[in-house]
Amino acid sequence: MLLHQLFGKPYPAVIAGLLFGVHPMTIEAIAWVGERKTLLATFFALWSLLLYVRYRRTNGWGSYAVCLVMYVLALMSKPTSTPLPVLFLLIDYWPIRQLNWKSVIEKIPFFVIAGISAYITIGSQREAAVISVPTQYAPLHVPLTLCHNIIFYLYKIVLPINLTSHYPFPDPFTPSNSMVLAGIIGTSLLIPILIISLWWTRALLTGWLIFFVAIFPSMGVIGFTNVIASNKFAYLPSIGLLMILVWLVGRFWHVPDITTRRAGIRAALIGMTLALVASEAVATRRHLEYWQDTEGLFRYMLNITPDAAAPHFSLATVLSGLDKTDEAIEHYNQALRITPNHLDAHYNLANALIKKRDIDGAIKHYREALRIDPNFALAHSNIGSAMFEKGDTEKAIQHLTRALELNPKSYRAHYNLGNALLRQNRTDEAIQHYTRAIELNPNFIAGYKQLGSVLSKQGELAKAIRIYQAVIQHQPNNAQTHFDLGILFGRLGYIDAAIGEFNRTLQINPNHIGAQKALAVALAEKKRLSP
User: Fold this and answer.
1) Same-domain status, 277 and 313
2) Is the peptide bond before 95 cis (omega within 30 degrees of 0)?
3) DSSP 486-502
4) d(CA 338, CA 68)
5) Within its chain, how far is the Cα of 269 from the centroid?
6) Do residues 104 and 239 share a domain?
7) Are 252 and 335 members of one domain?
8) Do residues 127 and 268 both lie within one domain?
9) Is 312 found in the same domain as 286?
């Protein structure tokens, strides 16, 4: 619709739209559920562009107002829509050819909103994740990144092979690397050619500038990811290249010549289009197979980039969740071989080693994680638990206390600290931490059980009964809890209540020997007390 509105040539617009629609580069934005934001942003951005073109054709201020609203919605979907006002100016230059001071002034509300959005985006990114600015890089980092990506994206769009969701930075990231050198040479040739093309058309330079400006927020000048490029980043920006395609196809489609020659050219264009669409569809279909499940996707990514740490780490995390612990450990180790200071890899590897009961190995990697980030609360909590299992109660208490200083709302740290304190016979302190653990997580059954056990041993039977009753509310078919509750009722002299709990225990587990014996004793006691 947009290309048709811009050029008034429906068939070339259909050809370009079809080639875009089945292109393998679009898979990541569509198949990856976490990238719904890219689709939403593109949806609203396309509407904003359509309405802007309509406004320029008709001077209807209603279209302008809705265009502004759509721009806001695009920004709310994904901040990479920020450069849209610059795209409006470029479209004014070509193909609309109405760029003047009036058209620039009209964009002021858009630029104000863009500035506000950029400020909020950078601020929130600093708070929620890692962000890098050009001053943090080596002097050549940004120019080399731009040169690499300018050629890389064009190459992948023209020849979409070996597509992956993780394109790591070339190593070394210097002109000695063939990919970086290709980017430098390609960019050095491309830019002059585009400028020279202005002698006969605005299409090539302007279309490329639309692509470049639209993709610029994700080109790596401001770093917010560990990859140098990503297929999804090219989703909306490809509009600029499609505009060049429509212009080019349109020149052949409407060739001013005799009817038979025009018909032959059109037939050739249709044939080429169908062949390209078929090849794209086959490639897209084949690549989609890797998106059937997460494990398969990460294994495919590793086939493409076997020396990248991130796919090893991601695959290991998936394998760990599938209880394929040995293979997960192998991939965590591979990630650490490539990136020795990978914080999450050290931490997750330690967790996997805990599953294998390799406590010493786990402690080693928890320590590495804390070396990288001394304020990593979860690492303090988990190494504290590991120290407790090793019998080093004092160090366990130190780490668990530090974990709670960093994150006072960690119910597991409270629970584990309670266990460590109990080992040192600091029972009152342990009770406080067990109580806090179940306050923070009312569904934490282990906390209830441990608290009930400690209260029972302390002789606070009424409190212990209330705790066990809370457990039964969450786990009504827990035979052992019913049995423990029956014992407490018996100790308080509530024989009928004890008998009821023992009967309930045996209903759930008829082979519970303790309940059989306790029931017999309780029935005998009841008979003895009966008048």
Assistant:
1) no
2) yes
3) HHHHHHTT-HHHHHHHH
4) 47
5) 41
6) yes
7) no
8) yes
9) no
Write out the two tokens for 29: 């934005």
Tens-level pLDDT at each residue, the chain (531 residues): 999 999 999 999 999 999 999 999 999 999 998 899 999 999 999 999 999 999 999 989 999 999 999 999 999 999 999 999 999 999 999 999 999 999 999 999 999 999 999 999 888 877 776 777 777 778 899 999 999 999 999 999 999 999 999 999 998 999 999 999 999 999 999 999 999 999 999 999 999 999 999 999 999 887 778 899 999 999 999 999 999 999 999 998 887 766 678 888 999 999 999 999 999 999 999 999 999 999 999 999 999 999 999 999 999 999 999 999 999 999 999 999 999 999 999 999 999 999 999 999 999 999 999 999 999 999 999 999 999 999 999 999 999 999 999 999 999 999 999 999 999 999 999 999 999 999 999 999 999 999 999 999 999 999 999 999 999 998 999 999 999 999 999 999 999 999 999 999 999 999 999 999 999 999 998 888 776
Bridge partner residues of 229 (DSSP): 167
* Cβ contact 221:146 at 8 Å: yes
- Partnered with residue 167 across adjacent β-strands are 229
Same domain, 367 and 282: no
Tell which residue, 356, 378, 357, has the closest CA to residue 369. 378
Q: What span, in angstroms and rounded, lies between the C-alpha atoms of 508 and 406?
A: 43
Confirm if 50 and 1 have CB atoms less than 8 A apart.
yes
State the Cα torsion 95-96-98-104 to the nearest 10°: -90
Tokens of 155: 């190459």
- Torsion, CA 355, CA 358, CA 363, CA 365, rounded to 10: -80
Domain count along the chain: 2
Q: What is the DSSP string of 282-316?
A: HHHHHHHGGGSSHHHHHHHHHHH-TT-HHHHHHHH
Among 433, 453, 471, identify where a domain stops. 471
Answer yes or no: do 314 and 283 share one domain: no
State which residues form the domain around 55: 2-290
Phi, psi of 167 (to 5 degrees): -105, 100
Q: Which of 449, 471, 493 is the last residue of a domain?
A: 471
Asked if residue 393 and residue 364 are part of one domain, the reply reads: yes
Backbone angles phi, psi at 229, to 5 degrees: -155, 165
Q: Which of 413, 420, 474 is nearest to 449 (CA)?
A: 474
